[in-house]
Amino acid sequence: MSDLEMKGIPCRRYRVVHETSYVYQSTVTLSQQYLHMTPRSFSYQQTESHYVWFDPAEENGVDRADYFGNSTKHIAITTPHNTLLVHAESTVVLSARYDLEQIKKTLPWETLRDAMPHDQDPAALDACRYLYASPHVVCSAELEDYARISYTQGRPLLDAALDLTQRIFDDFDFDDTATEISTPLEQVLKGRRGVCQDFAHLMIGCLRSLGLPIRYVSGYILTHPPEGQARMIGADASHAWVSVFCPSQGWVDFDPTNRCLVQCEHITLGWGRDFSDVTPMRGVVLGGGEQVLDVRVTVTPIMLTTP
Predict the structure, then answer these.
(1) The model scores a pTM over 0.90
(2) Domain around 125
């Protein structure tokens, strides 16, 4: 039983399998990879177990925490290979997070904006790292204008964030062919199409353009098969959403891709300023030529518990 369950908190348990495979055109003689594949433990999530294995086997594996406190793994593979398989498997326990009524009673958004440059509270100082532009998020007047439709004068901070979440869902179409990770936010805003990373970056750009702290969250989401059909292995996917800082509530997560306040079907790997801080896997190889990448994710509910 997890610590959350021992406290009498209703929880859900999930098993996550994340497989990444590469097929190379020619032989790779050296591969060095940096992984963010260990689910993070925090107040609403507890990682019960986690392991990752490689084929070919890794050498010189080093486990560390990055600047944001996320678990990382740095490995090297010196065995010559034409394919690489990375299999990560985890068991996590999630608890429900927020009451919708609570987020309507938070401070006006301008109060937080005006306080951020002067607040010496440790939580506010930590949040300052998520106030500014980052590699994939450039602040702009256009993003601020889009945000201000939701962030009207005196509106509660989190109520405005929920409204912006819903507007992005309504105004933008999910299209996995419309953008790449390098697509500028101004193009996403103009084209009104993209994927979960784009919508997360868009919402981050909107709030930072207003002077509010917001961070990028990387993880997984449970998907639901059509009624009467079984869950398909590998049908789930990596996902991205955002987390908004509120002094009274801490960090509160919103998912603009799914028009929702995050509760207990989102599994967090880690967080940072944008995608570049928490890429699940990136690295360099010697050799290889062209490559074919395949990613398969399966999220399986294990058990629902009640106090």
Answers:
(1) yes
(2) 100-263
